[in-house]
TrEMBL record:
<dbReference type="InterPro" id="IPR011467">
    <property type="entry name" value="DUF1573"/>
</dbReference>
<feature type="signal peptide">
    <location>
        <begin position="1"/>
        <end position="23"/>
    </location>
</feature>
<keyword id="KW-0732">Signal</keyword>
<dbReference type="Pfam" id="PF07610">
    <property type="entry name" value="DUF1573"/>
</dbReference>
<dbReference type="InterPro" id="IPR013783">
    <property type="entry name" value="Ig-like_fold"/>
</dbReference>
<protein>
    <submittedName>
        <fullName>DUF1573 domain-containing protein</fullName>
    </submittedName>
</protein>
Length: 157
């Protein structure tokens, strides 16, 4: 029994050493070059650079529709694809561009707010895209006075 175990151990060590010696000879240089190109292409990503990430509508009357545009540039080195844009509330509706934005090109994200709520209101818009972070966060805010009420909040200039 001991002889069989010893023979099996010696055979295993010999097989391991012979496999290790042949491993480098099995690597094909074409595969290495192709893998390097694939890895380099994987590093190319779009980048969303916004002119502003927050918009303040100032003081508005409740129920008064508002609209703003968030302009951005793709400062990355790959086409930018916006897959989804959602808001933190149904009263805010983002409308992103549908087509890819090429590197160096600009785009616009239109955001509509129906003026609901009262007092200081802040809403967020999440933009999902093929960027390194995967999503961008935008904000809109307003001070909403009740309909027919005298202004009580900060006044816009």
């Amino acid at each position: 029994m001991k002889k069989a175990l010893l023979a099996l151990s010696v055979f295993s060590i010999f097989a391991f050493v012979s496999c290790k010696e042949n491993a480098s000879s099995k690597v094909k240089s074409d595969n290495v070059a192709e893998a390097a190109q694939r890895d380099e292409a994987g590093k190319q990503l779009p980048v969303m650079s916004f002119e502003k990430e927050e918009h303040d509508f100032g003081t508005i009357e409740q129920g008064t529709p508002q609209e703003t545009v968030f302009k951005f540039t793709n400062t990355g080195n790959a086409p930018l694809i916006i897959t989804n844009a959602t808001s933190s509330c149904g009263c805010t509706v983002p409308d992103p561009p549908k087509d890819p934005i090429a590197p160096g090109d600009t785009g616009e994200l239109v955001v509509k707010f129906n003026g609901s709520g009262q007092n200081q209101v802040t809403k967020t818009i999440t933009v999902n895209a093929n960027t390194e972070k995967g999503s961008e966060l935008l904000r809109i805010k307003a001070f909403v006075n009740p309909k027919g009420a005298a202004p009580v909040g900060p006044t816009s200039k």
